[in-house]
Structure formats: C-alpha cells, structure tokens
Design brief:
Layout (H helix, E strand, L loop, with lengths): L5 E9 L5 E10 L4 E5 L6 H8 L7 E6 L2 E2 L4 H6 L1 E4 L11 H11 L9 H7 L15 H12 L6 E5 L7 H16 L3 E6 L2 H7 L2 E6 L2 E7 H6 L3 E8 L13 E6 L2 E7 L5 H10 L4 E8 L2 H9 L4
Parallel strand pairs: 3-8, 3-9, 6-7, 7-8
Antiparallel strand pairs: 1-2, 1-4, 4-5, 9-10, 11-13, 11-14, 12-13
Bound molecules: adenosine-5'-diphosphate and magnesium ion.
C-alpha cells in the first residue's frame, strides 16, 4: 500500500506564550490530490504547515511526508515538500534567477539538474530573471516564491494562503499553474479561508477550527452533508412576528419577507407553504436556495456565543 503524501497523527502545538494552536490533529493527504485546509484566521493552518516545513517545533505527535518521519528522516522529509509561505520574505538584493540558484544550492541540486530559467518561465517571470527582486510587484514576488518552492522538484507542494491580497487575474494564473502541476503528478495542499476557492479547486477538504479538524472529506461529500434548504417567501401582509408551527427555523427578513431554513430530508417546500397558508398568510412570491460550503463551514465552526 502506498503511504499518503502527508500523514499527521495527534499533532499538538502549544506556543511559548501558552497559546495552544494545535489540539491533536490527525490527517492524511492522499497522493495525487489537491487538498484544501480550510479554516478561519487563527485556526492553526500555518502552524501545521510550518511544522511540516521544519520552521516550528511541534509539542507532540508525529508527521510523515512522503513516508519520511520529520524527526527520524528530516532531510528526506524536507526534500519531499516545497512550501510557499504565507508571509512574503525576501532576499531583496538577489535577482529572481539568483534566488532560485541559491535555493537549489541549499537543497543540493547539482548545477546540471537545475532548472531556474524553466521555472521562471513557468511562473511568467523569465523577463524579470535578472531584475532586482525588490523591484518586483507583490504578485511577482508571490510567483517567485512558488518557483522557489519547486527548485528541488518536490512531490508535494504546499501553498499557505497563496491568494491573500492577490488580484483576480493573478489568482486565475496561479490556479492554472497549480492545476498544471497537479496534472503532472504533484500533490498539492493549500490553505485558504476563501470557501469558493477550496470548493472549486480541491478534491478533498479538511476544515480546521480552534486547532482541531472538524470535517475531512471529499468535496462533493462535504457539500452533500449540507442538507439544509432555505425558502424565502414574500407574504401578502405585514408581519409583526415570525409565525409559529411552520416547520424549520423562521426568520423575519423584512416587513413581508420570511426566510425558512429546513432540512430537505424532513420537509418539502410545499409543506411549508401549506402551513403558511394555514397560518392565514397569502404567499406572493417564493425562492429557494440550496445550502453550500459556506453553510457547512458556518455550521461546523459556529461556537457557542
Ligand atoms: P492560521 O494560519 O489558521 O490563521 P496560525 O497557525 O497562524 O493560524 O495561528 C494559530 C494560533 O496560534 C493563533 O491563535 C495565533 O495567534 C497563534 N500563533 C501563531 N504563531 C504564533 C507564535 N509564533 N507565537 C505565539 N502564538 C502564535
Ligand atoms: Mg495562516
């Protein structure tokens, strides 16, 4: 049986100040997947990534990358992963070409096997190969970081919030390139707090909240767990309060507008409209909406107020 690209077990991290960022995370990233780590700010996503990168020391638990335990075989583990960090940190005095050559040197890639120009071309920075990195725009720097993460041709690429503060066009380019890499066999992990992004790109999503995994499934299955349907109804007279006995959770949205959230396995829109009629309300207009990943996310990450 092939090992997962990444296998994390009971991973815990408490920072020096006492903040418990990871409270026992177990997670497998299958080889060949585009895996989304989705969660609100402060959920622990970067902490997890930085432990894999060898930048943060875990408190306890284990992690394997491409079968290599990060404690027992740190060099092999690090050689198996390329990480695009959330923060843009730069050697501002090197050109993009030099930056990649230097990184290749750090990973012990022999000169004959380096592919700095090819990588710069792939991220559309070949015309900037010999410009000072500090003259690059934010988007160009982000692309250079992607190229930098790939110099040693790792089987796993991790992007930590790659599109935070990135414009729409660049975002589209970045995803095109990520899809290309994935098609070429690279396993991709990305963290994001953009739901649509995860929903669109990832074949599997784990939702992280408060240092724990609260969901982890194939994207379509995760979406299928959203069993709620929302019925928005305009009625023929002003409402002072939500009518009772309608079924589902009723919310007054406007003087004559109601939103009824119900479980589609237990009720149908017709039943709800019928009950509204019985409550003496004439229905003027109706629309429905299926729950989406955002609803799943909100439900799972909702904390007691
Ligand atoms: P995410 O990437 O999901 O936004 P992080 O892993 O960056 O979350 O942070 C998780 C929690 O750990 C947050 O409460 C954050 O403030 C805290 N944290 C992150 N880095 C440090 C650090 N170096 N020292 C202390 N606390 C930290
Ligand atoms: Mg982060």
């Amino acid at each position: 049986m092939t090992q997962p690209a990444i296998a994390i077990r009971d991973l815990e991290k408490t920072y020096a100040g006492g903040k418990r960022a990871l409270a026992g995370v177990s997670l497998d990233v299958p080889r060949g997947s585009i895996f989304g780590l989705l969660g609100p700010n402060g959920a622990g996503k970067s902490t997890m990534i930085n432990i894999l990168a060898g930048l943060v020391r875990k408190t306890s638990g284990t992690a394997r990358i491409w079968g290599f335990d990060i404690d027992e075989h740190p060099r092999n583990a690090r050689a198996s992963i390329g990480i695009v960090p959330q923060e843009i940190l730069f050697d501002a005095f090197f050109t993009p070409f030099e930056t990649l050559e230097l990184q290749a040197g750090l990973f012990g890639v022999p000169k004959a096997k380096r592919r700095s120009m090819a990588l710069l071309k792939a991220v559309r920075l070949d015309d900037k190969a010999h410009a000072y990195s500090r003259t690059l725009s934010g988007g160009m720097k982000r692309r250079l970081l992607v190229a930098k993460a790939l110099v040693h041709t790792p089987p796993v690429l991790v992007l930590d919030e790659p599109t935070a503060g990135v414009d729409i066009e660049l975002r589209a380019q970045l995803w095109e390139y990520v899809r290309e890499l994935h098609a070429g066999g690279t396993t991709v992990v990305l963290t994001t707090h953009y739901l649509e992004e995860a929903q669109e790109l990832c074949d599997r999503i784990a939702i992280v909240d408060g240092g724990r995994i609260v969901a982890n499934d194939e994207t379509p299955k995760l979406l299928a767990t959203a069993q709620d349907k929302i019925l928005v109804v305009t009625v023929d007279r002003d409402l002072d309060a939500a009518p009772e006995g309608i079924g589902g959770a009723v919310e007054v949205k406007g003087p004559r507008t109601l939103a009824v959230t119900y479980d589609k396995r237990q009720a149908q829109a017709g039943d709800i409209l019928h009950r509204l009629n019985e409550a003496g309300l004439g229905v003027v207009d109706v629309s429905t909406r299926e729950a989406d990943l955002e609803d799943v996310f909100l439900k799972l990450t909702a904390r007691a107020a």
